[in-house]
Each structure stands twice: as structure tokens, then as C-alpha cells.
Amino acid sequence: MGLFRRNASKKASDDAPATSAVEEGASGDVAARDDLAAGDPAAERDAAERPERGPFDASQVTSMGPRVDLGAIWLPVLPGLELRMEVDKKTQKVTGVSATLGGSGLQVQAFAAPRTEGIWDEVRGEIAGSITRQGGTVDDVPGSFGRELIARIPATGPDGKPAVRPARFVGVDGPRWFLRGVLSGRAAVDPEAAKALESVFANVVVVRDGNPRPPRDLLTLTMPAKSRPTGRAAGDAAEARGPEGAAPATPSFDPLERGPEITEIR
């Protein structure tokens, strides 16, 4: 569903402390900001207006905390969380990141948005329309991050017969950016299973550069520094990944198989 290209230039976690670790990291950011603001009336006022629950803008945090730097997104990490970087085979650009934990998945993408208004209301309607045209069903409901979509998407099962894949689409409008998340697997249908990945999404930090960008333009993501191969290593890594085109251009709603902690898919 290439809904973000139209206008561009043109298992739940069974480890409760793991979820708390990310939340505590975010609380630490808030506490640090409040300490820095003490004694400065203007800074105190700004700190009071900043949200304690994210996703956050880079201006709202004082450190990266327990997150991995993916360029436009700083993604929280949890024990057992596996990351997959999605790469467009034509442009070689990283287009999104998928995190899996147990039987649940979360795909995250960040986009440019207008300075004066958000785009989630409009985008939500387009996603719903696209799924409906495919023969699926969608419910627009209140959720953890505001309005969200509970979707049942037509698919083909392993046996070749028609099947349905559930997905939850969540979105948050930030200052000149929009962050979209797609929850799949158990997290799409089980609120308890969704808690850990909801915590990951809630503690994402978006780093919006100062460059002018058309609304819905994908913000630039990068591979984590330790997993960016160069030279011969790059060729070896590409060969190990298998044939190009193996990764879908849109989110896969199947739970991803276990693999390296951080891998690249195309």
C-alpha cells in the first residue's frame, strides 16, 4: 500500500521489567529536562508543556538513552528485540525498520509533515480506503496513541488458500514529522501482547533535519553503524541475505523468523 508516495515530490513480552526499562529511560529524559529547567521560569514552562509519553521530537530529550541510532529514528531496544532494516532495492535507501518480539511485530516509518497541521487523519482515511478496496475490513477506533485502525487484510495462507491477516495502524503527528507504526502478529489482536511494542513506539525519538521536504517524504533512515558493511564485506553481506527482491516493499504482516539481532532485508 504505497500510501505515502502519492504526494511526495511527489508473544507479548513475558519480561515485564524489560518494558519498564524503556519507560524508565523516557522518564529519565523528562526528569533530566526538569532538572535543567529548575531556576529558569521560561525553561520550566517549556518543560511542563513537553509530553511525558512519546513518540518524542529530538528537541524533547537530552540524550539518546537506551535506543539505537537509525538516523531519523532513535529506536528503543529491549532484551530479545530483533531489528530488520528494510531497504529499497532500486534506490538502496533504508525505507523502514521492523522490530519483532516473540510472536509480534512493529514496523516504523517517519515522514515529513507540514509545520502547521498533522496528516494522520488524512492518511488514516487513505489506508482504510486501500484495505477496503482489497476486500478487507477496517475499524477506526480510539487507541493508545489516539485514533487508530484495526484492519483485517486479505492474504494467501501457507496452504495457498485465502486467509486474513490482522494489523493495527497507529500514527502520531509531531513537529514537522509524522510517525507511523504497524503492529502485526499477536500484537495486532491481543492488547497484552501489544504492550511491549507499544512501549517501543511510545519511546521512539524522531530526528527531523532542517531541510525543506514535501509532506509525506520519507525521512532518511540509516543502518546502525556497526552493521554498515563496506567494500568486500558489503558484497559478502548482500550474498548472505539471498536474492534481491526477497523483501516486500510494504510491511509483511507475518511474524518474522528469528535471525541476527540486526539484519538488512531488501
UniProtKB/TrEMBL annotation:
A Pfam family matched in the record: DUF3710
Annotated region (Disordered), positions in chain: 1-63, 212-266
Protein name per UniProt: DUF3710 domain-containing protein
Organism whose genome encodes this protein: Isoptericola hypogeus
Compositionally skewed regions (Basic and acidic residues) per UniProt: 31-55, 255-266
Native organism taxonomy: Bacteria, Bacillati, Actinomycetota, Actinomycetes, Micrococcales
InterPro entries associated with the record: DUF3710
Lineage top rank: taxon: Bacteria
